[in-house]
Records
---
Amino acid sequence: MRIKNIINRASSSLAVVALAMGLSPLVAQAAGPGTATSNLTTVSTGYVADTTGPAEATSNAEFTVTPGMLTLNAVPNVLLNSSSVKTIASSDATLTSNTGATTGGTAYDGNNTGALNVTDYRGDHSGWNLTVGMGPFTSGTSTVNTATLDLDMTPGTMDNTATAAPTSVALTQGTVTNGWITNPSTLWNAAANTGEGDNSATTSSSTNLKLGKQATVSAGTYDATLYWSLQDAPTAAPAA
């Protein structure tokens, strides 16, 4: 015990000398853990474990999660069953959806499997919004006067179970200005803290096209462009 007291007094004396010289003291008898200025990397002797208690130390473990991107990966073409001049010239008509490939049109991003896919790997939990609009149905120089596409989507796998499913939208023929549709509708809205990960849906068999009666309709294959737009934030809530 006498020897230990002598060592403690010697350590205190060294600390006083070190402080007088503007140096950090040597904390030989410290049990730890360390601080930002006094730790195992800055003292010349280790922490002491003795009968009064253990020597304790802390260290860090760390990893980084890098952000990804919000991407639109797949949009569907929509193939509808045929009708006749007689049917459209005589009354309103409803064309049901069909499976298979579209054969015309000037849009090139669509797939013929009905797949719609959005992935969000940004890691900022801000949500997103997907809109779609429809241009006019034309065949050469001919146009149908009234057309409404009731677009229904069947939800598929969504990594974030809080994500809402796509909604049904009724797309009327819109005006295209500067290469883009002027009247898009929200099809899929992921609120903040939802929509993260992989989100898929497919075109439902209930999708259909309603045509108004048009006595002057011309025979031909009619195509319209669907305009899809993915924004990196959800739609603002309407005012109360």
---
Amino acid sequence: MDIKKVEEIARGAGKILLQQLETGFSIEKKGTVDLITNADRLSDEYIVRELKEHFPDTAILSEEQGLTSSAGKGHLWVVDPLDGTTNFAHGYPYFSVSIALICDGEPYLGVVHNPVSGELFSAVKGEGAYRNGTRIKVSRTESIQDSLLVTGFAYDVATRPDDNMGPFARVTKASQGVLRLGSAALDLCNVACGRLDGFWERGLNAWDITAGALMVLEAGGKVSLMDGQKFDPFAREIAATNGLIHAELLKLIADN
């Protein structure tokens, strides 16, 4: 797979998002607080069209269109055309484009682009993780007490029993802080490049986390489910750290 082409596609989608941010966009609700804008749709259509053209034998699962191609099911693109839609809708400059390739159930290639900062994170399994072409590594922080972490809350946080409030409170009290920034893909990239030491969240989809998870792994970190089991892109949850604080974080976020 040509990662340079995927990077080019991600940058193209980022330009669409910035253009929409400048010219104006429409907002709809998929749920009580789950938003979608025409920027999501335009970016999604562009990415899917480009992937079909350049990788015609690979299946594509995108957030806004679902499974648009079933060719080569052992290889699946997962696409989030705008990760951080709520931030985008409010004009808050923390959102991203995330494109990942899953091969036989494992993250194989990932690209995450922040069009506001211009940062582009990319990784191929076994080849390291990079930010704008420079290799990145996770932090060396050895304890939760010395850590800055990040988490998120599912759109149905008001009604779900595992609402993450308990883990959020426990980790906040045990650490130097827990941020809530609103783009899981970028949160994972910030763990991968050492700005943050760990991330966890439930209620996520494969397109939210697969590229970022690969970034953390290729930067030397650790990724699992929240109970420590092997990471599964479709399990709808993730815990990702620099590796050194992983066991300690899992204990704090166990149960709700």
---
Amino acid sequence: MKHSYLNNDRVRLRAVEPEDLGVLYEIENDPSLWDISNFTVPYSRYVLRQYIENTQCDVFADKQLRLMIVRKEDDCVVGTIDITDYMPLHARGELGLAIRKEYQGKSYAGDALTLLCEYAFDYLSFEQLYAFIAADNVPCVKLFRSHGFLESGFLKNWIQMEGGFKDVILFQKLRG
């Protein structure tokens, strides 16, 4: 029987659609999520619309892949999961994950992480995925540990946030 990637009994991961503009605008402009990114300014609806129109939704062409995390019971978008900084020569990419506030703590992040890892390793033939997680983001640190990511480094004062700098843990997961 053929394996069904990007789906489980609770969620599915799908490409970004034009109707996702409002959700992307909400997520990209939420300052509480900026500690996991390199954002310095908010994104406009115009820029996000251009992104949606121009992405090929192909990690090999775009060198990144953004997928929407959709709850199956009602087709509600609960968050996004991304592979960025894809390096074909090294078969690796950086993983990013954002769950909308009202859906946090309901295991959607774990579902999405499992599905994306299966897809990246088993279908796309990635050798590794990595993520930079703020050391004080305890739920996220626990999530990545519980999904087989290993701590590969600790970066002092790596990201600047309101009120000072934060330490970051580098997590890696290798194929197999």
---
Amino acid sequence: MCGRFVQASAPTLLVERFDIDEVVAGTSIEPHYNVAPRMEVSVVRDRDQVRSLSQLRWGLVPPWADSTPIGDRMINARAESVSEKAAFKGAFERRRCLIPVDGFYEWQAGSAKTVPMYVHAVDDAPMAFAGLWESWRGEPEADPLLTCTVITTIANVTMRPVHDRMPVVLDPADWDEWLDRDARDAGALARLLRPAPDDLLTFHPVSTRVNSARNDDAALLVREDPLTLFP
């Protein structure tokens, strides 16, 4: 699964990297080093062939949901079933998005304690998670709540020592197809949801401060000696 990630790149870098046409009014892009569920996250979407950057709440709330807490169980969608599950099927067909990240955290279970790992691209370039988004209204006249989820797949060779699953990190060559709202071939889209190349990512242990979402600073990314994490 993916339960925490980092969005710290400057807006100008994101605009250039993801070929953004429009930053939606009201979007406040501040660096976050410990993004947790229910937080507002930066998302790239296609809006009538305009590539936009906006903020959506992490934890997808399906249109048919009675209330928003269901989103707490929808922070991830499994690539193997995303085209079939009722909560994600509609979004998979028409509401796909990119979630820009600088890296993500995963917890490696050991013989004694669980060690937090920071996972990032070998070249430290921003990456794009495959995501889905939805619009939910509690009342017919209410403003819509826009939410999103991260798609996960089986771990690649690099990630297997840490966890058996990982977020889908889309190849830049696949970004246009993933965002294209007219792309409806479920089989072709599903083929994009593969594990990242084994040489794309690297990881290192970080402070257990990351365990608390209240901690949100660049020091969380600093490599730690595992022997010092649990005195």
